[in-house]
């Protein structure tokens, strides 16, 4: 069951900085008190002048000067307190947002692979960038003004009742009608703001997808189709944004209309009270100023309505992300006490990504330490899934996978994965030096170890031809080197980790024929004494394998060496003749 994802979810983050917030609240109380006192003092100046003129005794300049000096002090202290209030509150909010961003970053590392398989990357990026920024901006702009509005409203109402309670009750109608109008509009507009944020997430997802596949879109001439898909998503965002902003924008003029009508009625009532000497003319002036002090926070809140509602929608999306189920880690796992030898057993393994579509059903296999195992079969039979289960990116739904007679579900994921080296067709390099990219899996690697790994992967010579050698910085996309060179670096990375088990998804697919042979020789060397799983696409890989697992419909239907399987004249021979023989 999902947790509440309202504004209250931000309170724990702000609580961590309660000293700053408490100091800010004290200062804003001072500001609100002084702001409430200012109109009363202004009214006293008007009353004094009116009394002096009416009595015909001349203006009491000493009294007027005293009141003006008092008023200047009130304004000066109020402005200073407000500045310090903003400083403390801003500092607390930004610190709280740092904590929230850190938690979001930590959450990403705890999510299972299944989450990223089902949720578009662009939508996730939108949650952790656009939605986070929306929350930060709304808090920064709104929280101070909301504090100020609540206290200003409270003190203004108190002073109005102190001047004349009947007039104050009349003024309360302004607040009541404003609240009713605001509630009706927010009820209508809030779902639209949620739809707006969701539409923004979808748009970001489409943009990310199109730029990732930009070359393919150009190759197949799908620019118009891509543009139409973007235009549709953009139009959807525009429609939702327009509806949300328009309906929310009605709040401010309607509240202002109510305020002006209320002021008109109160001025007439107040004038009658002045004529009948119930209140002084200065008190009427002060009362009207207090009405504006009531209107000002109401107007500010209505003007902030769009930002606040966008923030509420963003909070829902961010905390829905934080509430996602994390990758479960058993607490009773067995710590690794000895190096893994690499014996792997698949015992009656069952698995499906969705309950209604079974994939692997009753798979059995036994791999001895040091064997090179090729996994072959048509697309979609579960070759990559087998690797995902072995790495515990997913857990089996039935049966077990054991390494050295230990069920991998009883091993800590971090310990398990530290025993694997993995090289995939899709390379991943980050912005940093070539040396840092090779040493990614071994933080304490020395330069000598990095160079040795590069030599084994036959990439050392290439690196030395670069302007800065191992210190050359790859850019964000690592497109300042070729695809084949990227693949060589990822192989060197796997070599450096020196794992007992290797997983290779046809790691030489992006390398030319000459380099392929060199890499095959290098891979044969590093696979000695290690268990190796190779998702095979090339004849050379299949022929050199100690064991071939032939998969069909989620099961291993045949296993053996290349010669043994051909001699059986079964499914492997059909697959080999259709896919590899030529």
TrEMBL record:
Gene Ontology cellular component annotations, sorted alphabetically: plasma membrane
Source organism, top-level taxon: Bacteria
UniProt keywords, alphabetically: ATP-binding, Cell membrane, Membrane, Nucleotide-binding, Transmembrane, Transmembrane helix, Transport
Positions of transmembrane segments: 21-41, 61-89, 142-161, 167-186, 254-275
SUPFAM superfamilies in UniProt: ABC transporter transmembrane region, P-loop containing nucleoside triphosphate hydrolases
Residue ranges occupied by any ABC transporter domain in the UniProt entry: 344-578
Membrane protein topology class: Multi-pass membrane protein
Record has Transport as a keyword: yes
Span of domain ABC transmembrane type-1: 22-310
Main location: membrane
Biological processes, Gene Ontology terms: oligopeptide export from mitochondrion
UniProt GO MF annotations: ABC-type oligopeptide transporter activity; ATP binding; ATP hydrolysis activity
PANTHER family for this protein: ABC TRANSPORTER B FAMILY MEMBER 28, ATP-DEPENDENT PERMEASE MDL1, MITOCHONDRIAL
Name this protein carries in UniProt: ABC transporter ATP-binding protein
Source species of the chain: Blautia liquoris
């Amino acid at each position: 069951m999902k947790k509440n994802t309202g504004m209250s979810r931000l309170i724990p983050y702000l609580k961590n900085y309660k000293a700053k917030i408490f100091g800010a609240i004290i200062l804003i109380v001072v500001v609100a008190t002084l702001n409430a006192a200012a109109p009363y003092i202004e009214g006293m100046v008007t009353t004094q002048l009116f009394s002096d003129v009416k009595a015909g005794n001349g203006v009491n300049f000493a009294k007027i000067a005293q009141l003006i000096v008092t008023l200047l002090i009130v304004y000066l202290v109020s402005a200073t307190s407000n500045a310090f209030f903003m400083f403390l509150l801003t500092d607390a909010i930004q610190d709280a947002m740092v904590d929230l961003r850190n938690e979001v970053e930590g959450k990403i590392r705890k999510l299972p692979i299944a989450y990223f398989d089902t949720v578009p990357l662009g939508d996730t990026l939108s949650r952790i960038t656009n939605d986070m920024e929306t929350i930060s901006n709304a808090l920064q702009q709104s929280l101070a003004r909301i504090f100020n509005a609540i206290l200003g409203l409270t003190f203004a109402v108190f002073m109005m009742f102190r001047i004349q309670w009947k007039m104050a009750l009349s003024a309360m109608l302004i607040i009541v009608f404003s609240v009713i109008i605001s509630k009706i509009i927010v009820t209508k507009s809030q779902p639209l703001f949620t739809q707006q944020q969701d539409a923004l997430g979808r748009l970001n997802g489409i943009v990310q997808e199109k730029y990732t596949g930009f070359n393919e879109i150009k190759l197949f001439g799908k620019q118009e189709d891509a543009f139409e898909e973007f235009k549709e998503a953009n139009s959807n965002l525009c429609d939702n944004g327009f509806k949300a902003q328009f309906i929310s924008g009605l709040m401010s003029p309607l509240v202002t209309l109510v305020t002006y009508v209320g002021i008109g009625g109160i001025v007439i009532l107040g004038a009658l009270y002045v004529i009948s000497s119930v209140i002084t003319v200065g008190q009427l002036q002060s009362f009207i100023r207090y009405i504006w002090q009531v209107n000002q926070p109401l107007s500010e809140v209505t003007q902030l309505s769009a930002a606040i509602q966008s923030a509420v929608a963003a909070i829902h999306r961010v905390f829905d992300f934080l509430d996602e189920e994390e990758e479960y880690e058993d607490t009773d796992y067995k710590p690794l006490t000895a190096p893994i030898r690499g014996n792997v057993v698949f015992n009656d393994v069952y698995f499906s990504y969705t309950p209604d579509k079974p994939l692997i059903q009753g798979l059995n296999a036994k791999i001895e330490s040091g064997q090179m195992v090729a996994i072959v079969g048509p697309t979609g039979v579960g070759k990559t899934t087998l690797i995902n289960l072995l790495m515990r990116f997913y857990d089996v739904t039935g049966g077990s996978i054991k390494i050295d007679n230990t069920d991998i579900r009883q091993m800590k994921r971090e310990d398990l994965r530290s025993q694997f080296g993995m090289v995939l067709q899709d390379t991943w390099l980050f912005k940093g030096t070539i040396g840092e990219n090779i040493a990614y899996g071994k933080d304490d690697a020395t330069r000598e170890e990095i160079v040795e790994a590069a030599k084994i992967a036959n990439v050392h010579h290439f690196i030395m031809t670069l302007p800065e050698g191992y210190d050359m910085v790859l850019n964000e996309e690592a497109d300042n080197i070729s695809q084949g060179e990227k693949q060589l670096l990822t192989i060197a990375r796997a070599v450096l980790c020196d794992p007992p088990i290797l997983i290779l998804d046809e790691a030489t697919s992006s390398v030319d024929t000459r380099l392929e042979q060199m890499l095959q020789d290098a891979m044969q060397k590093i696979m000695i004494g290690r268990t190796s799983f190779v998702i095979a696409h090339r004849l050379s890989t299949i022929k050199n394998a100690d064991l071939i697992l032939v998969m069909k419909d989620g099961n291993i239907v045949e296993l053996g060496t290349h010669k043994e399987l051909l001699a059986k004249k079964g499914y492997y021979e059909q697959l080999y003749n259709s896919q590899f023989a030529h």
